[in-house]
C-alpha cells in the first residue's frame, strides 16, 4: 500500500473532525435507511467536458483545470458498468485510522476494494495533496469569509449591483451572473467534478468554494474531496454519481468485466461543449467568434469625437498617437503571453491524452519524440 498523507499536512487538510473517534463517523439509522435500497437507485448521467472545444479567446477555465491537475478527469469518457457501480455504493464505507487518514472500502463481485487517498488519486489521475474541500466547511485560511462578497466579486461588472441587491434579500446565487468562462466552469463542477441531482443553474456555497480555489490556483486534495463527496451522495436520496470513475476503480481492482452490462457516454448526450454554452443561456457569438452575453453585447457604433475648443494642436495629436501606440504594444504583449500560455497548456492536455490512449492500446510512446516536440513548440512560441 502506498504511503498515506503525512500528519504534517493536517493543518492544510483540516476538516474539523479529524480528532474524533472513528466510531463517531458511523451513519445514523435514519441516514442508513436511505441506502438500504441503493441497488435500485438510478445513476446520475455520466458527463464529461470536451475541453478542446472551448476557444481560449473566450474561455480560461480549461487552463485552470489543467493547472489544478483535473483536466484529464474532466475529459475522461467511455464505457461504464451500472450494476457494478450500484454494487460499489451498496458496500461503500470510508474509515479513518488513529492518524486520521482516510481509507475507502467496498466490495464488488467478491473483490475487496481498499484504497487510501493516495491510491484513490492515482487510479483516477487526480492530485491527493492540498486543501480539502467539504460541504459545509469553510477552510480556516479563508477566514474571514463572506460568500456574498466572494460571489459578487466573481460576477460580471454589469450584474454586480443587481446581484448585491438580490443577495441582500434572497441570497440565491445563479451561474447566469458569472462571466461566460466561469459559468461553464460551474457546469463542469456541478456535472463532473462534484455532481448533484438538481439546480445546476444555481451556485451553492460548496461550488462557490471550488470556483474560488480554481480561480486562485489553490492546490486542492481532489482525491479526498471527491471521495467524501461520493460518500455524501450515497447517504442522500437521488442519483448516484461518478459512474465512469467507479468503473475505473473496479477495473483496477481486477473485477471481470467481459460479461457485465455496460453503457457508453454518448457525446451528444454526455459532452459539455460550446453548444452547451449557447443553449438557453443568453450567450451568443459576436462577429469575431467570441462568446459573450447578448445583453452585454452592443455592436460598436462609430462616433466622431468633437474637437476641443480652439481646435487640435500638433502636440495634442502627437501625444494622442503615442498613447494609442503604447496601448497597442501593451495589449499585443499581454495577448501574446496569454496565447502562448494557453497553447502550451492545451498541448500538454493533448499529449497526456495520447499517452493514455497509447497505454490502453498497448503501445509505448517515445519520450524522446515528446521532448523533441516540446523543443520545436518552444521555438515556435519564442518566434511568435
Q: End-to-end distance, in Å?
A: 47 Å
Overall morphology? elongated
Question: Total number of β-strand segments?
Answer: 9
**Major sheet strand order:** 3-4-5
The biggest beta sheet reads: 3 strands, antiparallel
Helical percent range? 40-55%
Specify Rg, calculated over alpha carbons.
Answer: 25 Å
Structural class: mainly alpha
Give the overall pLDDT as a whole number: 82
Strand-residue fraction?
A: 5-15%
Question: Are there runs of 5+ residues with pLDDT below 50, and where?
Answer: 1-24
Give the ordered list of helices and strands. Answer: HEHHEHEEEHHHHHHHEHEHEEHH
Task: Give the count of structural domains.
Answer: 2
Separate helix tally: 15
Can you walk through the features of this model?
Helix 8 (180-193) crosses helix 9. The chain has 2 domains: 8-283, no CATH class; 313-383. Helices cover 45% and strands 8% of the residues. It has helices at residues 29-33, 61-68, 71-75, 82-90, 117-124, 147-154, 160-167, 180-193, 205-216, 222-235, 243-252, 267-270, 274-278, 314-360, 367-383; strands at residues 48-49, 79-80, 93-96, 102-108, 111-116, 263-264, 271-272, 283-285, 291-293. The two termini are 47 Å apart. The protein has 15 helices and 9 strands. Residues 1-24 have low confidence and may be disordered. By secondary structure, the chain is mostly helical. It is elongated and about 90 Å long. Strands 3-4-5 form a 3-stranded antiparallel beta sheet. It has a two-stranded parallel sheet with strand order 1-7. The chain has a two-stranded antiparallel sheet with strand order 2-6. Strand 8 and strand 9 (291-293) form a beta hairpin.
Amino acid at each position: 500500500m502506498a504511503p498515506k498523507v503525512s500528519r504534517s499536512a493536517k493543518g492544510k487538510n483540516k476538516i474539523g473532525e479529524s480528532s474524533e473517534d472513528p466510531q463517531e463517523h458511523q451513519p445514523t439509522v435514519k441516514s442508513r435507511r436511505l441506502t438500504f435500497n441503493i441497488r435500485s437507485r438510478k445513476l446520475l448521467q455520466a458527463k464529461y467536458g470536451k475541453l478542446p472545444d472551448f476557444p481560449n479567446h473566450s474561455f480560461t477555465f480549461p487552463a485552470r483545470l489543467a493547472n489544478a491537475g483535473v483536466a484529464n478527469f474532466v475529459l475522461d469518457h467511455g464505457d461504464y458498468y451500472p450494476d457494478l457501480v450500484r454494487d460499489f455504493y451498496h458496500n461503500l464505507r470510508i474509515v479513518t485510522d488513529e492518524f486520521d487518514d482516510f481509507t475507502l472500502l467496498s466490495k464488488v463481485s467478491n473483490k475487496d476494494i481498499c484504497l487510501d487517498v493516495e491510491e484513490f488519486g492515482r487510479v483516477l489521475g487526480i492530485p491527493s495533496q492540498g486543501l480539502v474541500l467539504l460541504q459545509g466547511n469553510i477552510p480556516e485560511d479563508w477566514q474571514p469569509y463572506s460568500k456574498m462578497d466572494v460571489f459578487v466579486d466573481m460576477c460580471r461588472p454589469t450584474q454586480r449591483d443587481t446581484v448585491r441587491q438580490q443577495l441582500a434579500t434572497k441570497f440565491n446565487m445563479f451561474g447566469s451572473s458569472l462571466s461566460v468562462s466561469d459559468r461553464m466552469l460551474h457546469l463542469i463542477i456541478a456535472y463532473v467534478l462534484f455532481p448533484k441531482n438538481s439546480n445546476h443553474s444555481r451556485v451553492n456555497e460548496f461550488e462557490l468554494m471550488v470556483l474560488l480555489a480554481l480561480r486562485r490556483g489553490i492546490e486542492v486534495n481532489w482525491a479526498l474531496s471527491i471521495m467524501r463527496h461520493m460518500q455524501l451522495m450515497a447517504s442522500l436520496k437521488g442519483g448516484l454519481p461518478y459512474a465512469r470513475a467507479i468503473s475505473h476503480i473496479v477495473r483496477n481492482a481486477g473485477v471481470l468485466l467481459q460479461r457485465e452490462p455496460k453503457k457508453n457516454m454518448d457525446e451528444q448526450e454526455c459532452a459539455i461543449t460550446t453548444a452547451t454554452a449557447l443553449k438557453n443561456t443568453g450567450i451568443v457569438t459576436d462577429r469575431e467568434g467570441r462568446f459573450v452575453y447578448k445583453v452585454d453585447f452592443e455592436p460598436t457604433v462609430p462616433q466622431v469625437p468633437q474637437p476641443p475648443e480652439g481646435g487640435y494642436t500638433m502636440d495634442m495629436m502627437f501625444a494622442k498617437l503615442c498613447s494609442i501606440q503604447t496601448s497597442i504594444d501593451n495589449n499585443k504583449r499581454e495577448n501574446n503571453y496569454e496565447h502562448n500560455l494557453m497553447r502550451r497548456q492545451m498541448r500538454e492536455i493533448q499529449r497526456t491524452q495520447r499517452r493514455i490512449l497509447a497505454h490502453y492500446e498497448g503501445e509505448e510512446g517515445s519520450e524522446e519524440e515528446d521532448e523533441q516536440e516540446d523543443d520545436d513548440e518552444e521555438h515556435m512560441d519564442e518566434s511568435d
